[in-house]
Backbone:
């Protein structure tokens, strides 16, 4: 997803927004399957509720940081992190 959005040359706000919507929709799609497998249950929901303040704090921190990072360093960081993720996937294959 990151490589595709970088290739589209989106401004960083659109890059972040498009990625957020994509992963939000993907995670919503997975909810019924996760619930059917027992991965979502009352105990896990209680744990998620405890972590909600950290999620909100992380979102606010990300919003503040994204506004301060210029476009070019943002693109470079996205490329480096995408390459690191790809390398991890390649090296973890048996």
Residues:
């Amino acid at each position: 997803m990151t490589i595709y959005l970088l290739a589209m040359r989106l401004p960083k706000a659109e890059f972040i927004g498009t990625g957020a919507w994509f992963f939000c929709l993907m995670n919503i799609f997975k909810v019924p399957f996760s619930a059917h497998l027992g991965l979502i249950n009352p105990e896990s929901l209680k744990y998620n509720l405890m972590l909600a303040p950290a999620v909100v704090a992380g979102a606010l921190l990300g919003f503040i940081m994204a506004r301060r990072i210029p476009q070019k360093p943002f693109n470079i960081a996205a490329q480096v992190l995408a390459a690191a993720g790809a390398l991890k996937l390649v090296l973890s294959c048996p």
